[in-house]
Amino acid sequence: xxxxxxxxxxxxxxxxxxxxxxxxxxxxxxxxxxxxxxxxxxxxxxxxxxxxxxxxxxxxxxxxxxxxxxxxxxxxxxxxxxxxxxxxxxxxxxxxxxxxxxxxxxxxxxxxxxxxxxxxxxxxxxxxxxxxxxxx
Length: 136
Fold this sequence. Notes:
It is a single chain. By secondary structure, this protein is mainly alpha-helical. Among the domains are: 12-55, no CATH class; 57-104. Helix 1 packs antiparallel against helix 2. The longest helix has 58 residues, at 57-114. The protein contains four helices and no strands. It has helices at 2-45, 48-54, 57-114, 127-133. Residues 91-120 are annotated as: Disordered.
């Protein structure tokens, strides 16, 4: 009987200490949850100061990596836009050169067609004709 009474006392003491441990663990867990919520809030508001105070180093590392990736993406987008603009400018210059060359070719052909012809039908271009062809 004495053993049973001692076992009951020991069991009560053990249960009491488990309740205390559980209470301490719950308080610790509540603190962790509160810190996580504060970190989430700081991340949502993009508040760098609060992030540095409330977030863990692992979270801060991820935020820094994300920021770096976003910065690189913005730089690449800017480079892509510049490259597209350069290509559009090059295309416009090439088209202008093509139009100019076509106009020159047509002008020369018109002058050659207007040149006097020999009996065999070939064009004959004298010095004056050649000087007019060279003006373009």
